[in-house]
User: Fold these one by one.
Assistant:
Number 1:
Amino acid sequence: MIVRIMGEGQVEIGAADIDVLNELDSELEAAIESDDETEFRTKLHALLDKVRHVGKALPDDSLEPSELILPPADASIEEVREMLGDTGLIPG
């Protein structure tokens, strides 16, 4: 799966890592639902850090279509709330 972190670039994520990312996504959703800004910030950074860690960075000149777009680390809770779908930021 090709993932874009807004403002950073693209990474390729293996199927084996999706479950861990979904767990972090669920924790982020819970923080958003409770309107807990501190917890939201912690969970957003944890999700993005995990994507960066398990993902293989694609070259900057790569034009692969992104299957998933994640917010930047400095996104507001409202901006991320607007990006959430029925299954969170990460489907599955």
Number 2:
Amino acid sequence: MAQNQMPDNLAERPSAPQLFLIFTRIGLTSFGGGLSGWMLREFVQRRRLMSEEDFLNGLSVAQALPGVNVTNMAIWIGYKLGGRNGAIASWLGIVVPAAFVIVLIGSAFASLSGYELSHVALSGAASGAIGLSLAMGLTAARRVPRRVFPLAIMAATFVAVAILKWPLLWTVLGFGSLSVAVTYRDG
């Protein structure tokens, strides 16, 4: 299938302005690391604009590239659904409106930082973001082939980063390169 072509059973592609509005809503209504979960729900489950497999492949690429994963993912989805203009519109939608809101909220929290309620609100938002990230991680883990090598790479990466505190860059480059090489060799 061509790069920007979709299977027949999926919905019609949105225009660049529609992508801007979709990503503006996602960026303004989502918190923390859960944005990829919102994107999965929006583009795969709700709008059926891409398959779960395409989404997770894009998420893998977005996480492997430098920069903010969510921004990378917005650009990837925008490009996949609308070419260059879709990528630009998606990037603007996920970044610009949320940046304005962050500045406003940051100013408000700075003036309210002496109150306990502001700390409680931030803890609640962090808990919600962790839950969304966990849900996204479980969705991605479901798709990992149930073979020894992929599961071993997943476990080794977790141990190296979370327990041994190895540098993320070198861990991902090492285990990622090994995983790609073995997967390429096998088929």
Number 3:
Amino acid sequence: MLHLRVVCPQGRTADVTGVLRDEPGVAHLVVHPGVAVHPAGDLVEADVARECADDLLGRLADLGIDHDGGITLEQLDTVLSDRADAAEEAAPGDGADAVVWDELINRTGEESRLSLSFLTFLTIACLLAAIGAVTDSPVTVVGAMVLGPEFGPMAAVAVGLVLRRRDLVTRGAVALAAGFPLAMLVTALATLLFDAAGWLTADALDALDQVDFIYEVGPFSLLVALLAGAAGMLSLTSAKSSVLVGVFISVTTVPAAAFASVAAIEGRWSEAGQSVLQLGVNVVGVVVAAALVLLLARSRSRRRGADRALSDG
């Protein structure tokens, strides 16, 4: 379940509690009169089933509470209550399949910001992937794939396309367009240092047989990207973040970017070009699949809303 906190003007508390009372998926409704200081007002709290949270947020927003007060949601890991169990049973649908759109927008928007930490993680991931590639170490490459933060911007682009949020598309695209070239440039400079130290030669790349999946583009490259994009978006919408680790390991974006830099410095232009193509195929595949998952989820949400409107009528 989710914990809902609403700060509202005292004159609107009755409207807020009315919305919450009418929702069968709500339990533990509590009103704290006059405790809110800035903005001044009442504090209303309740535990809500995830499958009804999106509809509740929409109704509260229709009351203007998001402008005159504030609305917050928190994930509850453990709830021991017969009332809560009854609320989850009464709520339509399945909580694991429910999409809280405002939560998704906030999460993808935050994770797609072009920040120093994003650039640092992406650069370190590319350096690790480059080291794993030149040493023919798939374990190191996998570690780099887990570390890479690039799924956040790709998810933001998908959400922005489906919801027609230009700000999310722009934010995610800028993070990818700025992050990968910078990380690849640093990786190229590191490759020059490896050459100067005698740690790497062009002939050494001929012996790679454990990590050739990085630059070998084929039909399975797109298929894996599509499956990873679908799984990643499902994990975001269902709040099962642990699944994202598997998604990161599946997507060959960071290794491809890193190997493109290494191959270019060593004059292996064919492998460099194939790596860039692999990067593009994976990015496009993830975004397309994630957007398709969101379109299906949005269609289900609209059907549930229509069915509920008919039953209420």
